[in-house]
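STRUCTURE:
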């Protein structure tokens, strides 16, 4: 490879020197010949060892770039995937405050106080805090819930996703006619950012 590279460079340098710095590209191409033919001629002059070395170097470069891209994708996927830790170990959230805020949200839903619920919701969720939408969701869970009887088990966690932390709580609530499981999430300002019922 090196020999052929040096030969090409030498030929180009010789041709350019003949023009004394005053280069007409079209004339130079005409004198040297068709670029495709020149390339083919030089490729024929490579020894088998040079060709193998070139292919090996090219293959190793491709493998290196593929490895770099794969590592970057793995790191990006790790960063993007949610990671769960115990809420009690959180430096941002207090478990008792999360439970208290979740119970408050559930009470607002039971009272159908959607205006107040909107006030404590993250802007992204506000479009979904509408009476028609929430009533439809409630009916899909069960036709007639009845009055709230008790709040049962709660499960909490801190979720970290793409550098942002949120508190997630699952609350089991018993009503006169059914049991509903709420999954709520709050941002670090304790604004409601996720609401799911089943």
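SEQUENCE:
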């Amino acid at each position: 490879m090196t020999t052929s590279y040096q030969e090409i460079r030498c030929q180009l340098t010789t041709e350019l020197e003949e023009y004394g710095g005053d280069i007409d590209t079209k004339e130079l191409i005409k004198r040297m010949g068709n670029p495709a033919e020149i390339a083919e001629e030089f490729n024929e002059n490579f020894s088998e060892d040079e060709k193998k070395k070139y292919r090996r170097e090219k293959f190793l470069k491709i493998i290196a770039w593929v490895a770099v891209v794969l590592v970057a994708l793995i790191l990006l996927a790790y960063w993007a995937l949610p990671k769960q830790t115990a809420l009690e170990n959180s430096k941002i959230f207090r478990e008792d405050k999360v439970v208290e805020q979740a119970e408050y949200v559930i009470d607002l839903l039971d009272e159908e106080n959607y205006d107040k619920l909107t006030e404590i919701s993250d802007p992204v969720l506000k479009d979904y805090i509408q009476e028609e939408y929430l009533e439809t969701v409630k009916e899909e869970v069960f036709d007639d819930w009845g009055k709230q009887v008790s709040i049962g088990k709660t499960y909490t966690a801190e979720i970290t996703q793409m550098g942002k932390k949120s508190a997630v709580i699952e609350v089991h609530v018993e009503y006169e006619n059914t049991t509903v499981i709420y999954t709520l999430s709050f941002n670090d300002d304790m604004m409601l950012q996720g609401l799911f019922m089943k």
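REMARK: Residues 48-80 form the longest helix (33 residues).
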